Amino acid sequence: MSLVTTHVLDAARGRPAAGIPVRLESPAGLVAEARTDEDGRVRDLGPDELAPGVYRLVFDTGDYLGQDGFFPEVTVTFRITDGRAHHHVPILLSPYAYSTYRGS
């Protein structure tokens, strides 16, 4: 399993958000990219070890939310202090709001 995973739940529809492009970035640039699966998850996003530092998950939500979506992109910036510990960073998404948390 990769060190960083994510999950996107469409809170307005009450179901997983499939097909959303996701990028994992470091200050040096792109680390990995993938799309959410039918369960709204990205289980394999990048390496199984990363250097401690600040990273970003960028969710390209524009196509998924369509014209009614206020957020065409969601960026979650987080810090990795243990480069071997699993980091699950999910988002709850709706057309006019999103939230995130450190998952397990």
UniProtKB/TrEMBL annotation:
Entry's EC annotation: 3.5.2.17
Pfam families: Transthyretin
GO BP term, pick one: purine nucleobase metabolic process
Keyword Secreted: no
Domain (Transthyretin/hydroxyisourate hydrolase): residue spans on this chain: 4-103
The keyword Hydrolase is assigned to this record: yes
Reaction(s) the record says it catalyses: 5-hydroxyisourate + H2O = 5-hydroxy-2-oxo-4-ureido-2,5-dihydro-1H-imidazole-5-carboxylate + H(+)
Top EC class of this enzyme: hydrolase
InterPro entries: Hydroxyisourate_hydrolase (IPR014306), Thyroxine_BS (IPR023418), Transthyretin/HIU_hydrolase_d (IPR023416), Transthyretin/HIU_hydrolase_sf (IPR036817)
Molecular function terms from GO: hydroxyisourate hydrolase activity
Alphabetical UniProt keywords: Hydrolase, Purine metabolism
Record text on subunit structure and interactions: Homotetramer.
Reported function: Catalyzes the hydrolysis of 5-hydroxyisourate (HIU) to 2-oxo-4-hydroxy-4-carboxy-5-ureidoimidazoline (OHCU).
Family membership noted in the UniProt record: Belongs to the transthyretin family. 5-hydroxyisourate hydrolase subfamily.
Protein name per UniProt: 5-hydroxyisourate hydrolase
